[in-house]
Amino acid sequence: MDNSKGAPEADVTDLYCDFLDDFPSEILFHICSFLDAKTIWRTLSRVSQGLHDLLSSDRFWKIRISKRWPQKYPAIPVNQKEFDWKSACEAREEQSRLWSSDAEAMENVIYREGIFAPVDSVHLMKGNDMLAAGSRDRYINVIRLSDLKADDPSSEKNCSLLSSDKTHKGWIWCMKSIDNTLVTGSWDSSVAMTDMGAGGAVMRRVKCKSAVLCLHCDHDVSFMGTYNKSVIQFDPRTAETISNKSYHSGPVLSMIGSENYLITGSEDSTIVIFDRKADEVLHKYKLPASYPVAMGIDREELWVGDHEGNLHLFDVSDGHIEYVQVCISCFILLKCTVRPR
Description:
The protein has about 350 residues and is an alpha+beta fold. It has eight helices and 22 strands. The chain has helices at about 10-20, 25-30, 35-40, 50-55, 60-70, 85-100, 100-105, 155-160, and strands spanning about 105-110, 120-125, 130-135, 140-145, 160-165, 170-180, 180-185, 190-195, 200-205, 210-215, 220-225, 230-235, 240-245, 250-255, 260-265, 270-275, 280-285, 290-300, 300-305, 310-315, 320-325, 340.
């Protein structure tokens, strides 16, 4: 119909916007359940002001998370005014998508070149572009992951940055990095600092009296845990030992640190929070029937993997340690052969 002389036709987009705005929130919530969080926020919320207001509320994202994951979330109480529920939901859905279907969401790559013995330690450095591996034949291999192609077997030979058995005389048990410097601990009772910017040359070395089982490294001060129960503090710039403390009754197997605290786990089944500023043990917790072998921390959440494959969660806010929950038989693994497409 010719409407050139009459009133202008209504914009179809406006009609759809008004139509959606008239829906009850319960129906809109149900519609959104068929969409991922990224689409909801980046597309649907821009359709109209009414939808934007609805989807901007914390209530919407809290309900969405609780329906998909009924368990308590976050596992440790957070400041409700500061916590970003939308970003948390989007990130959790993305991680769930990535890890629920490896074949579709992940690219698997395998590196075998120059590795002839069991690998005891791996470490990602330089923004996850470089992967270091230490094995029982005393070899350190460093590769550039961006040069390793799943569909090109010949790329294994081209991605190597370092392959050397000259750094240590014993098994390479732990690895960390500070910028371009790869820090490695070994059963030869030493920590070596290798400059990857200088072709893999060993720049400094710290000697101790026992095997080095774990590391935590910062620019100005670093720590090592040893088989003879010691926690040794050293300066990575000069390789000088600053202190040597023994507050565990077994080998120190794992550690992780922050600006104020160092958290260590031992074969004596204890987890210790050490106050770096006060230079004293702040808290100690004993696992009832296992010992910690791996640690990770995210804000106030301390995650501890034990030797039986269980994953324990602790609240370590304000320097205290409070047991929260345990996930049974999680198989504590470090998987580094996958990356998002």
